[in-house]
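Deliverable D2.4 — example input (structure tokens):
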């Protein structure tokens, strides 16, 4: 009997000791992560959100931070080719290079604006797909495509088959897929392209703690390049929800552009850096394929190509948006699917609205991520109180991203107006400095606004207990979304 009791006591003592060791280990790891978190250059709201979840729920917060918490991982970024933008022939700076926004973006690490381009806006999924298919068929040397999502649907299958046809015809086809966004389509689904001689790259595998992997740092850039002199950019993924040969009443509304001219060389640099990081191929191989006529002028558009993410030292895209807002004199129009700004962006917009600047924010009535809809409520209310106008698009999901200031400058690309796009993801933006192109962006935004319904200023009512709780929690976690 005494032996049995002693055995039970020893087991209890052993389990208790193990539990104490795990508790101590978890506490020490949490302390280490808190110290690391405080040393990083994050927005205060982002730091506070992580601190709260690590301290209050360490067994949840610590694993989440290890998997999702990294912003600019130094060792990982060091292994990735730096985005050192160069142009053949060193063309003369564009006239817009001296403008405040351009100077701000350049000082933050981006290449100055370049002239001699031609910009054509792609405002429907059918037009974007038609242009993509036309350029794939017309390419004679190289096709480079990067996407966050390649869907296993009709659009995805058609594009894979078409790319396989071009690869069999001798065109060098490279398809770069984000490993998380294309989790279900980056293997057997693209086998027809592999069998035809095309190459597939998987960007940043999800498995944590492995070389060149992170569940948090996603390649959200959407880019298609053809023979080094034509590029398609914007927010559309390769899926029926975004594009297709025929119209669909459920298709999301998105926005993009076709670019010809010297700016394409800068976009090619972005793709090459991403591709070589994902595949470990030498960049010199891809650079040698670039045709001599890469920087040939094609029009009069002045464009500034800006990549943001862990592979660039600063935050040129974010600082460029702040500069656009600060330089606005009459009007600011922001089109975005998710509106979760940091304090600097929000206060900049509020100050401009109170100063009499006409601010229009166009959002989907309901996005595909309900938590972001709850999170945006506070920011939308603050803007409306300052005098901003908020329009809701109700027809389908609004996935377009654009910022337009006065009649002077516009921004399009892959980045949403939220903390993840501006501070975490690999993103791509195009600052448009030429008046005719900005006018075309304004015309598109005005037409979009005519199809929206104005949101009346909302006064928070404490009687909606569960709605208020959801909003508070969503806003608290907004920096982590």
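Example output (designed residues):
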């Amino acid at each position: 009997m005494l032996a049995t009791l002693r055995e039970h006591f020893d087991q209890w003592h052993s389990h208790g000791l193990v539990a104490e060791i795990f508790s101590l280990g978890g506490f020490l790891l949490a302390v280490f992560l808190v110290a690391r978190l405080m040393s990083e250059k994050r927005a205060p709201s982002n730091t506070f959100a992580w601190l709260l979840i690590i301290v209050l729920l360490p067994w949840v917060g610590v694993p989440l931070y290890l998997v999702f918490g990294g912003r600019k991982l130094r060792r990982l970024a060091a292994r990735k080719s730096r985005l050192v933008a160069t142009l053949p022939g060193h063309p003369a700076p564009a006239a817009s290079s001296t403008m405040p926004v351009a100077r701000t973006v350049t000082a933050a690490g981006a290449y100055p604006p370049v002239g001699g381009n031609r910009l054509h806006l792609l405002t429907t999924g059918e037009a974007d797909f038609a242009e993509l298919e036309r350029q794939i068929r017309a390419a004679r040397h190289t096709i480079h495509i990067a996407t966050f999502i390649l869907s296993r649907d009709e659009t995805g299958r058609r594009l894979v088959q078409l790319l396989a046809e071009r690869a069999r015809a001798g065109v060098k086809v490279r398809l770069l897929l984000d490993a998380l966004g294309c989790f279900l389509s980056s293997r057997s689904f693209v086998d027809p392209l592999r069998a035809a001689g095309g190459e597939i790259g998987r960007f940043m595998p999800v498995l944590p703690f492995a070389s060149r992997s992170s569940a948090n740092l996603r390649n959200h850039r959407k880019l298609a390049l053809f023979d080094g002199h034509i590029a398609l950019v914007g927010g559309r993924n390769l899926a029926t929800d975004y594009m297709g040969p025929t119209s669909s009443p459920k298709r999301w509304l998105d926005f993009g552009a076709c670019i010809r001219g010297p700016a394409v060389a800068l976009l090619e640099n972005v793709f090459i850096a991403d591709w070589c990081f994902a595949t470990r191929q030498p960049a010199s191989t891809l650079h040698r394929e670039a045709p001599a006529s890469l920087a040939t002028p094609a029009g009069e558009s002045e464009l500034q190509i800006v990549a943001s993410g862990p592979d660039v030292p600063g935050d040129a895209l974010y600082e460029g948006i702040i500069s656009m807002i600060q330089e606005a004199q009459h009007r600011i129009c922001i089109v975005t699917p998710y509106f979760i700004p940091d304090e600097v962006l929000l206060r900049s917009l509020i100050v401009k609205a109170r100063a009499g600047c006409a601010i229009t924010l166009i959002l989907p009535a309901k996005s595909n991520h309900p938590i972001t809809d709850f999170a945006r409520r506070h920011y939308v209310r603050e803007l409306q109180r300052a005098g901003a106008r908020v329009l809701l698009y109700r027809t389908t999901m609004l996935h377009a991203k654009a910022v337009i200031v006065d009649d002077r400058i516009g921004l399009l690309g892959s980045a949403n107006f939220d903390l993840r796009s501006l501070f975490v993801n690999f993103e791509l933006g195009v600052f448009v400095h030429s008046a005719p192109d900005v006018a075309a962006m304004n015309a598109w935004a005005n037409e979009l606004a005519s199809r929206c319904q104005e949101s009346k200023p909302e006064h928070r009512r404490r009687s909606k207990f569960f709605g208020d709780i959801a909003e508070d929690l969503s806003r608290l976690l907004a920096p982590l979304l």
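Residues 1-9, 11-15 have pLDDT under 50 and may be disordered.
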